[in-house]
Design brief:
single chain; alpha+beta; six-stranded mixed barrel
Length: about 800
């Protein structure tokens, strides 16, 4: 083996340019795969970086009747599961809460606050770097409220001063004392800024108040399936014991990755890994063709080895060692590419709410994957040339000097590899094209909305001072006229969700519509808004009228339906004047709501590829906390809007301040980012495929130089010569397109599960991709054909 390795190194040095081309090709394939596996491993598989992180799980409640697997649990459920289970070292809970941190002399600021059980930090073996942890007594009713702040809050608000410990502050206008500062980067469970003990209130003790997320550390040796069986049994006991609240309620144990990086993000990561796998296969096919071409020139060498007694296995082993060595060199070069790609991805996702525990770094799993990839790639592209070269025809080779045998051997295999490359490239290009086209179409669905001129910001009102809808409405009645006077502001309104940022869902009963099963009322989405909202966001009113000041008062319930929703519920009729109603949680009917207008269509949820019909409700009849200000302005009014809010209530900060375009981009950051990555992979695959067919035809043409010279001397025209050379390229391109289209259709169906309305049968994308690949492929065929047609016949005949 040592001799084989030394000889392989000599051959790599002796054929420097050839080796460099192989190394560069493999560096792209192996480097990109290593990069993507690092990202996938960090986001989906790598344990959370805490002691026992591989055993950290999240526990969800499930509604067995609706197959809803994403519900939280109640505080009494936490106590019951903790006392009855034996699979966990520790089981803790946390509840999200918007927190406003205020104190004399420093403006109030909104932060992400988590109310957590007192043992949550001990469960993770993470403790404050300053001050103390929660004590069990901190979670007892009547205990003095305490607060632990994150490192960034300590640094930015208190300038990293140790005097922050013991400081008396206000959290949502309630006094609390800062007792600790958590380590840098710790934001458990995700993007949390502050923590308070979960002191159970009267509402928390209600079993139907499902607001707590459970986290646990499995005992060593306990598998998730064992814990799941145990929790299923506990859920059945609780359902029998508390049938009024826990009936048809189950429990689901998930890994931390499944809980926070599942769904759409998980699917996109897996698709990215599959795509980059295609790039590696195309690279291996390219290198295999290069090795086959080189093997033709080494047939005489292999024949002499065989004549001197080398066995077939001995020849194959020598060639495979050379292939694997080239693969390792390509992989080492690709590591640099992988490091750069990982660094770029890390920076691109640093400000999009990425979970703190997702760290894009290489570990032993990544390097193990890299090593396996190098060896398998070397075997993959080196096996066919090795087998081909290990059985030379000694008599013919030694008699003819290898002049013509090379033309007869390996040609069909090279052609098949080109077909394989083109088929994979078409699948990759089609997938990327469908993804990007659907994404662009989704973003352009609200083209009439002037998103770059709309500022959005949310205001959350403390319940102790704003106890009902009327008090919140009075605040807005004072605020909106003040914002309207800000220079540059043309319109202002409020809405529960601006365009593209989601909606609320419910079910309705349409008047005069009979249902066989009242439980199956038609689903619908809705947005709560103030009068003038549609004009503010540029949505035209097609029929009827906008909301007015009386809408929402008793017996004046009003709604505006979008055009598609109106046609869905009242096809062939005018929706204006029609009525519908909601039902409350106890299945009691609410007041009838009258449709007063029909608006143009607007897409509220870009994350949903099957949106429900949509309508608008007036804020006065469905008042919500946490509404969004929607300000249409020709300049940036953020500072003036914040001042207007502070003048009315200095303890009300603005949250989630964005220009609407930025808000949508922030919501769909992963689709933007992955579309660029997919297109990059597709472009690399396209270049490799075209280089592959060019190299095969150029090599084939060079072997037929003498034949072409004879044809030209006998009167063959330039067109005949070009057609002769390009003919094999034609059928390779055609076969690759047919096979690629056959594989691209099911691949597009897989992508149809993404949340952006991907169409599995998008003829425009299929046509453009096939046409592009055909044109580029034919260009790659035309170049060697053109050179062959310009050969000097005398020089060509004497070439061998």
């Amino acid at each position: 083996m040592a001799n084989d390795l030394r000889f392989a190194l000599r051959m790599i040095r002796a054929h420097g340019w050839f080796s460099a081309a192989v190394v560069v090709t493999l560096a792209l394939g192996i480097g990109l795969n290593t990069m993507v596996f690092t990202l996938v491993n960090a986001a989906l598989f790598k344990p959370v970086p805490v002691p026992g992180g591989a055993r950290l799980v999240a526990v969800m409640s499930t509604d067995l009747t609706r197959n809803d697997r994403g519900l939280r649990m109640s505080y009494p459920d936490l106590l019951d599961y903790r006392s009855q289970s034996h699979s966990f070292e520790s089981l803790e809970g946390a509840a999200d809460l918007d927190g406003v941190l205020g104190e004399p002399g420093i403006p109030a600021q909104p932060y992400h606050l988590e109310r957590a059980t007192s043992g949550i930090f001990s469960m993770l073996h993470i403790h404050p770097i300053l001050g103390r942890d929660f004590l069990p007594s901190d979670a007892q009713p009547g205990a003095a409220p305490v607060l632990i702040i994150g490192y960034s809050v300590w640094r930015e608000r208190y300038n990293s001063s140790p005097t922050a410990i013991g400081r008396l502050v206000r959290i949502n206008e309630q006094p609390a004392t800062i007792v600790g500062v958590m380590p840098k980067g710790f934001l458990f469970p995700t993007t949390v800024d502050m923590w308070m003990p979960l002191v159970p209130t009267t509402d928390d003790l209600k079993r139907d108040n499902r607001s707590v997320q459970l986290f646990g550390i499995l005992k060593p040796g306990v598998r998730m399936v064992t814990a799941q069986v145990e929790f299923d049994a506990i859920a059945r006991r609780l359902a029998a014991q508390y049938s009024d609240t826990d009936k048809n309620t189950g429990a689901l144990i998930q890994t931390f990755h499944e809980r926070y990086n599942g769904g759409n993000i998980r699917m996109v990561f897996i698709l990215m890994l599959a795509s980059v796998g295609f790039v590696l296969l195309i690279a291996c096919a390219n290198v295999a063709n290069m090795m086959l071409s080189r093997a033709v020139g080494r047939q005489r060498e292999m024949s002499i080895r065989a004549a001197l007694g080398a066995s077939r296995w001995r020849v194959m082993r020598q060639l495979l060692v050379e292939s694997i060595l080239l693969s390792v060199l390509g992989g080492l070069a690709g590591l640099g590419l992988a490091f750069c790609g990982i660094r770029w991805f890390d920076l691109a996702t640093s400000n999009v709410g990425r979970p703190y525990w997702v760290q894009f770094t290489m570990d032993y799993q990544v390097f193990g994957y890299f090593a396996i990839l190098c060896i398998l790639s070397g075997l993959l592209f080196g096996l066919a040339p090795a087998i081909r070269s290990s059985r030379p025809d000694l008599n013919q080779m030694l008699q003819e000097g290898g002049r013509s045998v090379g033309r007869l051997r390996g040609g069909k295999l090279s052609a098949l590899l080109v077909v394989f490359q083109f088929a994979l490239t078409l699948v990759l290009l089609t997938g990327a094209g469908v993804f990007v086209h659907s994404l662009v179409r989704s973003f352009n669905s609200n083209r009439d909305v002037p998103a770059d001129q709309i500022m959005t910001a949310r205001i959350n009102f403390p319940h102790d001072r704003y106890k009902d809808t009327e008090s919140i409405q009075r605040f807005y009645d004072q605020l909106l006229p003040r914002i309207q006077t800000i220079p540059g502001v043309s319109r202002v309104a409020i809405a529960s969700n601006p365009p593209g940022l989601g909606s609320a869902d419910s079910n309705i009963e349409v008047e005069h519509t009979r249902l066989d099963d009242p439980a199956h009322r038609p689903p619908i989405s809705f947005v709560v808004s103030s009068p003038g909202y549609l004009g503010t966001v540029g949505v035209a009113l097609l029929l009827g009228r906008d909301f007015n000041a009386s809408d929402g008062s008793a017996h004046h319930q009003a709604a505006i339906f979008t055009l598609d929703a109106a046609r869905h519920f009242w096809p062939g009729q005018s929706a204006v004047g029609k009525r519908f109603r909601f039902y409350d949680d106890k299945n009691n009917p609410q007041e009838w709501i009258t449709v007063v207008g029909v608006s143009a269509n607007v897409v509220q949820d870009l994350n949903n590829n099957s949106p429900r019909p949509l309508f608008f409700l007036t804020f006065r009849q469905e008042g919500w906390n946490g509404m969004a200000l929607v300000v249409h302005s020709t300049s940036n009014p953020t500072a003036a809007v914040r001042a207007a809010v502070q003048n009315l209530d200095q303890d009300l900060p603005l949250r989630d301040v964005f220009v609407l375009t930025s808000a949508v981009d922030h919501e769909l950051w992963y689709l933007h980012l992955f579309s660029k990555i997919f297109m990059g992979f597709a472009f690399i695959a396209l270049v490799m495929a075209c280089v592959g067919i060019y190299a095969v035809l150029a090599q084939s043409t060079s072997r037929r130089t003498q034949e072409i010279g004879v044809r030209i001397a006998l009167g063959a025209s330039m067109g005949n010569i070009m057609l002769l050379v390009m003919r094999s390229g034609f059928w390779q391109i055609g076969a690759g397109l047919v096979l690629g289209l056959a594989a691209a259709i099911p691949a597009a169906r897989v992508m149809a599960n993404l949340p952006i309305g991907v169409s599995p049968a998008d003829p425009n994308v299929f046509f453009v991709v096939a046409a592009t690949l055909t044109v580029v492929g034919l260009t790659a065929c035309w170049l060697p054909a053109r050179r062959a047609a310009r050969l000097d016949p005398v020089t060509a005949i004497r070439s061998e």
